[in-house]
Write a structure and sequence with these properties.
- The chain is of the alpha/beta class and 409 residues long.
- Helices cover 43% and strands 13% of the residues.
- The chain folds into 2 domains: 17-271, Type I PLP-dependent aspartate aminotransferase-like (Major domain) (Aspartate Aminotransferase, domain 2, 3-Layer(aba) Sandwich), CATH 3.40.640; 274-407, Aspartate Aminotransferase, domain 1, CATH 3.90.1150.
- It has helices at 17-23, 39-59, 72-87, 108-119, 138-144, 167-183, 206-209, 247-250, 258-271, 274-298, 325-334, 354-358, 363-367, 380-407; strands spanning 5-6, 66-69, 99-103, 124-128, 149-153, 190-194, 213-217, 228-232, 302-304, 315-320, 337-338, 369-373.
- A 7-stranded mixed beta sheet has the order 2-8-7-6-5-3-4, sandwiched between helices. Strands 9-10-12 form a 3-stranded antiparallel beta sheet.
- The chain starts with a strand and ends with a helix.
- Bound molecules: 4'-deoxy-4'-aminopyridoxal-5'-phosphate.
- Residues 71-73, 107, 109, 155, 159, 194, 196-197, 217, 219, 228, 343-345 line the site of 4'-deoxy-4'-aminopyridoxal-5'-phosphate.
- 4'-deoxy-4'-aminopyridoxal-5'-phosphate binds at residues 71-73, 107, 109, 155, 159, 194, 196-197, 217, 219, 228, 343-345.
């Protein structure tokens, strides 16, 4: 069988060779619990702190503002639930309820954390719409802010359609809003961004972005699964949600994922190499532009979902008339090509993507969509093979659905 082609880098990435190499000794010889006082522990605490410094360098933050988690899902849960927990750590009047603003296209771990808070009555939530281009408008955000708003959570890059949100602009707007609120003695609004799909290609300088909380995941940046980070700006009103030991500045109890954190550190060293990062970004961007142009040219009635330019270099979402995305995915899988119809966490479900519906697409249009996400190992040759197979598969599926429809006429 021909070599398999992986075009699902937004779901996960392979671990880099140097990352694996860095991790190996920490499974066997250097296995001490970083919280232990003896030498075994001291040795591993040092490498945990090395990763903390690499992450801090990347985010332009202080190492003491970095909290290691098991991934972006946990980091996002901690961000949202931790802010609510802090709110309720002070005695509140029964009518006092915090308000959260987020968007309708967030990852399920953000959306479901918000929905859970609504359900148990601990918060009110506004889900901002996005325009047809998949981007939130600042005016809508400004209008959604209320005196009782405590948190705004907007993702940096959409994992499904790859569009970029104006995080820096939101940060600037919020700093003005917060200055006015201080005079009115209203609570400061905390700004969180889920940067999981942004870390490979975008500047995540937290001061520039104006964020108080930022989450990301190791397995999207060629580090192992089960690692993640929540940046917590010093002084942010947030409380831990996982009780236990005093790890992570008492923000997240539980023995460290030592090998994972070592791997994350090695991956961060690569991300901190600006020259290399820029080179990879250009290479991936070029391939993406080639992919978009060729698919739209060669496949009739194909469209690009989301904004044409305001997008990340590696995620593309296409729509094809009269084709089921699931059928396409399965057919391509039989050919050894891995793509996706949306986020991996929910693609087992046959519900249309909430993100595509939020763009205003009809159910059948959302069902006719396919996510292709590339990475640093993707080649032009792989894309050519993919496009060739895609073209044939789309035509075949259209023919079948045309025949079925004709039979029912
Ligand atoms: N947020 C976004 C935007 C993501 O793409 C993902 C992964 N699909 C997550 C959160 C969840 O990350 P993790 O797998 O590390 O829990």
């Amino acid at each position: 069988m021909a070599k398999k082609i992986y075009l699902d880098y937004a779901a996960t990435t392979p671990v880099d060779g140097n990352v694996l190499e860095a991790m190996l000794p920490y499974f066997t010889e250097k296995f001490g619990n970083p919280m232990s006082v003896h030498g075994f522990g001291q040795e591993t605490l040092e490498v945990i702190d090395n990763t903390r410094e690499e992450v801090a360098r990347f985010l332009k933050s202080s190492p003491t503002e970095i909290v290691f988690t098991s991934g972006a899902t946990e980091a996002n849960n901690l961000a949202i639930k931790g802010v609510l927990r802090s709110f309720y750590s002070i005695k509140r009047k029964p009518e006092e309820k915090p308000h959260i603003v987020t968007t309708s296209i967030e990852h399920h771990c953000v959306l479901d954390s918000c929905k859970a808070a609504q359900k148990d009555g601990s918060a009110e939530v506004t889900y901002l719409p996005v325009h047809k281009d998949g981007i939130v408008r600042l005016d809508d955000l400004k209008k959604a802010v209320r005196p009782d708003t405590v948190l705004i959570s907007v993702m940096f890059v959409s994992n499904e359609i790859g569009t970029l949100q104006p995080i820096e602009e939101i940060g600037k707007m919020l700093s003005k809003i917060n200055a006015e609120r201080e005079e009115e003695k209203l609570p400061k609004i905390i700004f969180h961004t889920d940067a999981t799909q942004a870390t490979n290609y975008w500047d995540c300088d937290v001061r520039k972005l104006g964020v108080d909380l930022l989450s990301f995941s190791g397995h999207k940046i060629y580090a192992p699964k089960g690692t993640g980070v929540l940046y917590v700006k010093k002084g942010t009103a947030i409380k831990r949600i996982q009780d236990g030991g005093d790890q992570e500045y008492k923000m997240r109890g539980g023995t460290h994922n030592l090998t994972g954190i070592v791997g994350l550190g090695a991956a961060m060293v690569s991300l901190n190499d600006q020259k290399n990062r820029e080179k990879t970004k250009k290479q991936v961007e070029k391939l993406r532009d080639y992919l978009i142009a060729k698919v739209l040219k060669e496949i009739p009635k194909s469209y690009l979902n989301g904004h044409k330019e305001k997008r990340t270099p590696n995620i593309v979402n296409f729509r094809f008339d009269d084709v089921e995305g699931e059928g396409l995915l399965l057919s391509l899988d039989l050919e050894g090509i891995a793509v996706s119809t949306g986020s991996a966490c929910s693609s087992g479900a046959l519900d249309p993507s909430h993100v595509l519906l939020a763009l205003g697409l009809r159910h059948e249009q959302a069902h006719g969509s396919l996510r292709v996400s590339i990475g640093k190992h993707t080649t032009k040759q792989e894309l050519d093979t993919f496009i060739k197979k895609l073209k044939v598969t789309v035509a075949r599926l259209r023919k079948i659905s045309g025949n079925v429809l004709a039979e029912f006429k």
